[in-house]
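MODEL INPUT / OUTPUT PAIR
PAIR INDEX: 1
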Amino acid sequence: MQKLFAYKAQITSALIDSVNQNKSSVIRESIRKKYEEIQKVLDEDLKVTLTQLEMEEKAAVTALEDLMEKNCTVIQEIEQDLARLAAELAQRDILLPDEMDTAMEDRVKYLLSGTDPSQVKLDEPKADQILSLANKMLLVIRSQIPIIKRLNKSYSTDVSLDPETAHPKLIISHQGDSATYTDNWQELPELPGRFDTTLNVISLQGFNSGRHYWELDVSGKTYWELGLTYPTISRKGRAEDCWLGRGSDSWAVEFFNGEYTAWHNGVAQPSTLCKTLQPYWGAV
């Protein structure tokens, strides 16, 4: 009877795992599709915006070309009029007055100035408005990503290191937010809670329940451990129980020799992480 119950329990556990995996797959697929929809909307909006600007640019260039063609026609007519007038005056032996020559020249210059490409007028206020809206949209998107990090930070918990638990070769900052290793053994009071062999320090705050998130900067460090422990962790001597994750009352993530390892109750579990975290984000 006991064997049958155990067998049923194993089947039930397998079914639960299968259901959880299916749910996880559905959630992942739904999130992936939403990101694809967001990207599709952004791509479409970019396409429409660039098309609009291109159409306005082409319209401005076309208007300029039409104006240039019209002015060229007018200039040709002026040149023809000048040639005819000069011929008539030549037949009468009359010189063309300087004032009339200057007036004709000014008229030609005026017509030519209207075909200056620098005079092309685009709808600059609209372009500025589009740029402003795009910048605001970028700020909104940046403020929302990465989503997972923002979600984790909603569980943010302030912790400060307890200097009365720190090993004598660890210098704890006044704010309790950093620990620095020193080769010199500091003359510190012998307290029951102080680690005297392992280079450990624990926080003043403790947690009984809930989710908690914190960040730890480990940049440039070649070896470190980050973990959780019950207050009952051994503090004295060389017993492995003093190390995080080596006893039954603590858990730890260790970085050493370029590799990450998870520890609990003295059992090591290699991690799939293959790059140095900087900073390391911790959550429980």
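PAIR INDEX: 2
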Amino acid sequence: MLKESIQRHYSLNFISSIFFNESGFATYGINQFSDIPPQVFRATYLSSRSVQLPKYVTVFKDTKRPALPPKFDWRDKNVVTPVQNQQSCGGCWAFSVVESIESLCAIKEGHLKLLSAQEVIDCSYRDAGCKGGSPINALMWLNQSKAKLVKESEYPFSAKTGMCHYFSKSTFGVVIKDYKAYNFRYNEDVMMEKLLEWGPLVVVVDAVSWQDYLGGIIQHHCSQGKSNHAVVITGYDTTGDIPYWIVRNSWGTTWGIDGYVYIKMGRNICGIADSVAVAFV
């Protein structure tokens, strides 16, 4: 196992040195996950389940499509909470849903509240807590139950699945009104519009190649074809030679670009457009 890790480190450093010299390419190397065997990493951190979704159908016929800014990031609007760390809990599916809802509340109300991912991990009965789940199932549960998503301070993250806690009617909480979930494959230009219209988007991607990601724009090597990790798109940038999505992860700020990763736009890299969801508050 150690020998396998050392060999992979040398290989990654060699690849990283090549890509680093080529503008825009992703770089790979030693990070906090590099000493974990790939199969253990996948079992621990890539535990989001994908769900078959209807394709989004555009309704633009005679109307003119809206002009979009060449660059946009919800972080610039101060409506995105700090990057979280799911630790060894496979709760990315819950973190992504909660992080998106935090931003949607801030867009609507004008101030940020850190909400409880642990509540969703413990209470979304269609999912398996820290052993994995689906953002769509979590949104379905929140919508059907009208459960109040409480503050992180009231229901803190424990990095393990616990008993579901219920709160009184007088307790503060966010109740979602509805949610939408679509497949935007071959429609990433429309995804850009929906990002601005709806807010930060929950997506499920193939993140097998992200284990040793350091920075830059991922343009290749997401070829497994199986979505396994839930993240949040907060923005995009089309001003350079390679347009990319700005994607928030839940592996802490020491991973990637202060906890973020850039994904090339337009070719469904890492399956980023296959499963896209958002709540309405």
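PAIR 2 NOTE: Helices lie at 2-20, 38-45, 92-109, 117-123, 135-145, 188-198.
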